[in-house]
Write a structure and sequence with these properties.
about 130 residues; 7 helices; about 60% helix; rod-shaped
Length: about 130
C-alpha cells in the first residue's frame, strides 16, 4: 500500500493513470502529452509499474502501458475505513437516541399521572368567580 500511495503522490503519475483509464498507450504517446523529457516519463512509468498500478506489454517494437486498478483496492479500503465514523460515535448516537426516548416516556407518564376532574364533573374554568 505504501508503494501505491507513493506512486499516486506525484501529479504527473496521477495524470498518466488518468490517461490510461480505459485504454492503453505507448511510452511515446504518454511522453508527448507532457512538457518533460522522455527519460523523466520513463522513470514515472517505472514507479507506476513497480507499484503494480501499470502493466506493460511488448508488441513488436512498441511497449504499451495499461492501468491495473487491483493495487488501489487495499488503499481504497483503508481510506474508506478512515471515512467511517469511529465506534464511539455510534455509541454516542445510540446514547442520544436513548435519552430522547426516555424523556418522551417521562413526559407521557407525567401527563397520565396528573389528576384530572372526576368523570362526569363539570370542567372548571378561570371565570367561575365571575359567573356566581
Amino acid at each position: 500500500m505504501d508503494e501505491v500511495a507513493a506512486a499516486i503522490a506525484d501529479p504527473i503519475r496521477r495524470e498518466i493513470l488518468e490517461m490510461l483509464r480505459g485504454t492503453r498507450h505507448t511510452a511515446g504517446a504518454i511522453a508527448a502529452r507532457f512538457p518533460i523529457s522522455r527519460p523523466a516519463i520513463s522513470r514515472h512509468l517505472r514507479v507506476l509499474r513497480d507499484s503494480g498500478l501499470v502493466r506493460d506489454e511488448l508488441v513488436g517494437r512498441q511497449r504499451y502501458y495499461a492501468l491495473d486498478t487491483a493495487p488501489l483496492r487495499e488503499l481504497r479500503t483503508w481510506l474508506a475505513a478512515l471515512d467511517e465514523p469511529a465506534a464511539w460515535e455510534h455509541r454516542l448516537d445510540a446514547l442520544a437516541t436513548e435519552v430522547h426516548r426516555t424523556r418522551r416516556e417521562r413526559r407521557s407518564t407525567a401527563a397520565r399521572a396528573r389528576p384530572g376532574p372526576p368523570p362526569g364533573a363539570p370542567e372548571a374554568t378561570d371565570n367561575e368567580e365571575n359567573s356566581a
